[in-house]
Write a structure and sequence with these properties.
Elements lengths: L2 H9 L8 H14 L9 H7 L4 H6 L2 H10 L31 E3 L12 E4 L13 H4 L4 E2 L14 E5 L4 E13 L2 E8 L21 E2 L2 E2 L6 E2 L15 E3 L8 H4 L9 H4 L2 E6 L5 E14 L14 E10 L5 H48 L6 H25 L1
Helix pairs in contact: 1-2
Length: 404
């Protein structure tokens, strides 16, 4: 797939308001330049390095620049559809995780739960109106790609993240619990409603005239349009639609149009972040994304008039960062071992306290018993007194006999 499909999609996009004559001119240009719906290139060229494209080269040629300056003025273009600002065509051309805009983030000095929160991206606090229609969708909130989150997480807590690659903020909700390296964690990710661009009742419903509604086209559930150049404050360079792998959140009408779709939530859940619940430390991230190209039937372009209206998956990627073992060790020691030791010590202290209390009560009872019960004399004293009395009586009797 190349810029051909993007050009065809832009031709019928209502926001560009291209007339029938304009569409004919674009179709003729595509034929002259030798643009076709399908091309063959190496994966590395398609994804990262980029490849030479006739339409891209022509749009950035000197003659087009001169004519644009004459007829449209400085900064204008005679090309009525958006052309990517890139020397070569590639989906991630020039993007290597450092081609991003500048961030202003919260340090967490005033509130530790706000650490990492994006205050400004590319000098703006809200995404452009042309990207999203509602304030909620345009808002920049949370940390960068979920790098940080608040402390004391539970199943009811939510956290926001700003994903510049998709030019959108998401709200993470509870997914499932999982133990990682003997550390209890809680998995959170965007729920499927986040990538539901329309209600299911609007999917190919007659009232929407084939999903054309309010001047635009509604995407089926489970799809997310690319509105910007990934990670840049620039308009989208080509018609691309994101989705979870294998159209996980989409209805059967979408999956059945493509052979080989077999969605599995365990394998294709798009974005899951696993956090240690007390500190909020991120210990595991699974980021999955499928890139799709809409193929649109157009009677204005001869090479496209026999194409079906279908969403073709181009590729899907899965990214998982690898953490060093010392990170797990530090988190386990600080938030698993130490709390357990504190709990054990609490019970030990409680047991010792109860034992000491028992001993004190026992000694007090013994003391009270000795004070209350006092015998008149011991058995030895009584016996000695009796013997003395008996001896004295016997002596008196013996003396009387001798005097007789």
């Amino acid at each position: 797939m190349n810029l051909f499909q993007g050009a065809v999609g832009s031709m019928i996009d209502p926001q560009f308001k291209i007339t029938r004559t304009g569409r004919t001119i674009i179709a003729t240009a595509l034929m002259i330049l030798g643009e076709y719906p399908f091309v063959s290139h190496k994966v590395r060229e398609v994804l990262f390095d980029g490849y030479e494209d006739a339409l891209l080269s022509a749009a950035h040629s000197g003659i087009v620049t001169v004519l644009s300056g004459i007829f449209k003025g400085e900064g204008g273009s005679i090309v009525p559809i958006p052309i990517p600002q890139m020397p070569k065509f590639g989906y991630f051309q020039g993007y290597n995780n450092s081609r991003d805009e500048e961030y202003w983030i919260e340090t967490g000095k005033k509130d530790i739960n706000q650490i990492g929160r994006v205050q400004k991206w590319a000098g703006i606090t809200e995404l452009p109106d042309s990207w999203w229609m509602t304030p909620e969708a345009r808002s920049i909130r949370g940390s960068d790609t979920g790098s940080f989150t608040q402390m004391h997480l539970d199943e009811s807590s939510t956290s926001d993240m700003f994903f510049s690659f998709m030019c959108r903020s998401f709200t993470k909700t509870f997914y499932k619990k999982e133990t990682i390296q003997s550390i209890p964690t809680m998995g959170k990710g965007p729920c499927h409603q986040t990538v539901d661009c329309s209600k299911s009742i609007n999917f190919c419903h007659a009232c929407c005239d084939g999903s054309f509604y309010n001047g635009t086209y509604l995407l089926p559930p489970g799809m997310f349009p690319l509105v910007c150049y990934p990670g840049r404050l620039q308009p989208t360079p080509f018609a691309v639609v994101y989705s979870p792998p294998h159209f996980l959140f989409s209805p059967d009408e979408v999956r059945n149009t493509v052979v080989g779709m077999s969605p599995d939530p365990e394998k294709h859940e798009p974005m899951i972040y696993y956090h240690e619940t007390y500190s909020g430390t991120t210990l595991k991230v699974t980021n999955r994304l499928q890139v799709n190209m809409p193929v649109i039937k157009s009677h204005d372009v001869p090479s496209s008039e026999n194409m079906p209206n279908v969403m073709i998956p181009l590729f899907w990627q899965e990214a998982t960062p690898i953490y060093h073992q010392f990170i797990f060790n530090q988190v386990w020691f600080g938030f698993v071992l130490v709390p357990r030791l504190m709990t054990v010590l609490q019970f030990v202290a409680l047991g010792l306290g109860l034992l000491l209390l028992t001993i004190l009560v026992f000694l007090q009872l013994r003391k009270n018993q000795k004070t209350t019960i006092r015998p008149s004399g011991s058995f030895l004293e009584t016996t000695t007194h009796w013997l003395s009395s008996t001896s004295s009586s016997s002596t008196n009797e013996s003396g009387g006999l001798r005097r007789m």
